[in-house]
Amino acid sequence: MANQLKPLPVILVLGFTGSGKTSFIQHLSSQTQVAVEHIQSGSQNLGSGCICCSGLKDLKQLIKDLLVDRENEKIECQQLFIEASHETDPIPVIRTIRQHFSPGNIFLKEVITVINAAKYPPKDAQRYLVTNQIFFANKIVVNHCDCATDEQINNSHKHIRSVKWQPIFNAIQGIVDTNEFSVHPAVETSIPVSTVISFGS
After folding, report:
1. Omega into 121 within 30° of 0, i.e. cis?
2. How far apart are CA 167 and CA 147, in angstroms?
3. In the chain, what percentage of residues exceed pLDDT 90?
4. CA nearest neighbour of 44 among 54, 32, 56
5. Over the stretch 5-21, which tens digit does the pLDDT of each residue have?
6. Residue 39 — φ and ψ, nearest 5°?
């Protein structure tokens, strides 16, 4: 019943264009046998920009609609992925989730940043955004290791460690070892379902 629902855990996935956020979410869900339902942001003015400007209003409304549908049992959702757009500063997104929603309904479980080891740090990105996406993450996925040299992978690790220490997981095409890295739904059902709110690139 609706009054027995546990708070919905949110996983915010950050990363610049080409890092492999979508592949990471898809592979993680398939490896943990979790069905995925996608919700595309309706904003037409985001482009390759960020959630943290024009997209915050859109994000709040999508979350509100999702919580209402979940409470009314129109959907079965045990966890929510927010796939951030290219140049997203995590601070406004984290603040929005924590300040605009009750922790009894929804809470930020963790922030995961996906990077492209072969093109890191991204040359076209503002330095503070690169730093914030690392600093506010609970886990870092160093992706596309099959396309990067050992030196590029090592340099990625060194740069990450220069910002903050947190678990780093190497990945190929978004695939990580789920024995070490796993995101489990908060409620066990016959077919666990994750919803992904996607903000594009």
Report:
1. yes
2. 21
3. 49
4. 54
5. 889 999 999 999 999 99
6. -125, 115
For 34, list phi and psi in degrees, rounded to 5.
Answer: -115, 130
Output the pTM of the full model. 0.86
3-class SS at 142?
strand
Nearest-10 Cα torsion for 84, 90, 92, 97? 70
CB atoms within 10 A of CB 138: 14
The pLDDT assigned to 124 comes to 82
Residue 79 has pLDDT above 60, yes or no: yes
Whole-number Å distance between alpha carbons of 80 and 136: 18
Distance between CA atoms of 132 and 87, rounded to whole angstroms? Answer: 11
User: At 157, is the secondary structure helix, strand, or coil?
Assistant: helix
Say if CB 83 and CB 21 are below 8 A apart.
Answer: yes
* CA torsion, ordered 16, 17, 19, 20, to nearest 10 deg: 130
| Angle between helices 90-100 and 56-71 in degrees, nearest 10 | 40
Q: Is the pLDDT of residue 170 over 80?
A: yes
Element (H, E) at 40: strand 35-40
